[in-house]
Design goal:
This protein is α/β, with parallel strands linked by helices. It has 5 helices and 5 strands. The two termini are 16 Å apart.
Length: 149
């Protein structure tokens, strides 16, 4: 039986592969979703994959996930650095959360070095390109195994 997990993607990630490929790479969000589904299946995780440019939509999905999911991977994108509301929604979750950033936010502009989401995440994966998503799922699966014991 697979454990259900939610992968959320924040603003502008719908442009992945088109927007600043020198920073974010050439893979599309559909490519990332396909890889996450393959990885999830191999790890016994049932993956729900979503993206929104609207902060309130991400928060609503997080609220729903509290009742239906075993864990969450989130790439909050620019909301990482600005959204106390997103952090508050995530802090109300009893399951493990892994934060993902495609670029290394610590090598970029100073304002990107801080993330509100990191305060409530069990771990952060950044700078590994889109490969960070399957790495986050591997860690999430391990955390869920540990919780099940």
């Amino acid at each position: 039986m697979s454990r259900p997990v939610l992968i959320l993607n924040g603003p502008n990630l719908n442009l992945l592969g088109k927007r600043e490929p020198h920073i974010y790479g050439h893979e599309t969000l559909a490519d990332v979703e396909a890889e996450c589904r393959r990885t999830g299946e191999a790890l016994g995780l049932g993956v729900t994959f979503r993206q929104s440019n609207a902060e309130h939509q991400l928060i609503d999905w997080i609220h729903e996930a509290r009742e239906t999911m075993a864990g969450l991977v989130i790439n909050p994108a620019g909301l990482s650095h600005t959204s106390v509301s997103l952090m508050d929604a995530l802090s109300a979750c009893a399951f493990p959360i892994i934060e993902v950033h495609i670029s290394n936010i610590h090598k970029r502009e100073e304002f990107r070095h801080f993330s509100y989401v990191s305060r409530v995440a069990a771990g952060v994966v950044c700078g590994f390109g889109t490969q960070g998503y399957p790495l986050a799922l591997q860690r999430l699966a391990r955390l869920l195994e540990t919780d099940a014991r």
